[in-house]
Specification:
Oligomer: single chain
Number of helices: 8
CATH class: Alpha Beta
Order of helices and strands: HEEHEHHEHEHEHEH
Largest sheet: 7 strands, mixed
Structural class: alpha/beta
CATH architecture: 3-Layer(aba) Sandwich
Helix content: 25-40%
Radius of gyration: 18 Å
Number of strands: 7
Strand order of the largest sheet: 1-7-6-2-5-3-4
């Protein structure tokens, strides 16, 4: 069966079922209310957002970061997809159904005992289908985990490789203040101002030397691209946290 025909993933292909779409929309407007009155959000650099699909990449210090990026782009949660471990989020009907009421999770494999359970080509195919509908976008946290505020962890190459394979620009951003508004280990948010700085997009074409790249070419381009992304985010984060 083609992955695009698999009932598990049909919500990623074209128009979503109403019961998924309505909860994402409601949660988006709830978040906007919070970011207006409780943890006031100020966004810099909206003019850098491409008119087409993009891969949003930022530092990651809080559980609220996905909602912040969505609000910063002024696009609802219906518009964004995120990678999620297939074996954990998709092999359970309950987890898959509940989480996808507020987020669009796209399955990606993590090897179990060295064995792949889901093809990266299928993940790319789902991403393309998801993004082709109304120019939706992806969110990546290239550090791979929540980091320490003001200290950017080494970036993983996944975002750059997806950008190259999908021929989609990366949109860097720096979130400042979410670690204070919702610190690690706290159950409730605090009324703290937050800022999101959207930087200039990084286009994959500028890292490719020919139109028919080999696998080695893609690895090298991915390495250069993730380095440029890491430098851009680290530079801005350093400026903000040293103030």
């Amino acid at each position: 069966m083609d992955v695009l025909d698999n009932p598990k993933y049909t919500y990623l292909v074209g128009k979503q079922p109403f019961y998924y779409k309505i909860w994402k929309t409601l949660f988006y407007y709830y978040s906007k209310t919070v970011f207006t009155f409780y943890t006031p959000l100020k966004v810099h650099g909206r003019e850098n957002i491409p008119d087409s699909s993009f891969i949003f990449c930022s530092n990651h210090n809080s559980h609220m970061d996905v909602a912040l990026l969505s609000a910063a782009a002024q696009k609802s949660f219906n518009h964004f997809g995120m990678m999620a471990a297939k074996d954990y989020w998709f092999d359970s009907w309950t987890r898959r159904t509940l989480i996808n009421t507020v987020m669009n999770l796209i399955p990606i494999d993590r090897k179990i005992n060295g064995v792949s359970q889901f093809s990266i080509k299928d993940t790319i195919k789902l991403c393309k289908s998801f993004m082709n509908y109304k120019q939706r976008s992806l969110i990546f946290f290239p550090e791979g985990t929540r980091g320490t505020p003001g200290k950017i962890l080494p970036f993983k190459k996944g975002a750059a490789r997806f950008s190259l394979d999908l021929k989609t620009p990366i949109l860097p951003a720096v979130i400042h203040g979410s670690h204070k508004a919702w610190p690690r280990g706290n159950f409730l948010m605090r009324p703290t101002p937050i800022a999101v700085y959207i930087l200039e997009p990084i286009y994959p074409d500028s890292f490719m030397e020919n139109d028919n790249p080999s696998e080695d070419d893609l690895r090298l381009a991915s390495k250069k691209m993730i380095s440029a992304l890491e430098q851009a985010i680290t530079k801005k984060a350093t400026e903000l946290y040293e103030k």
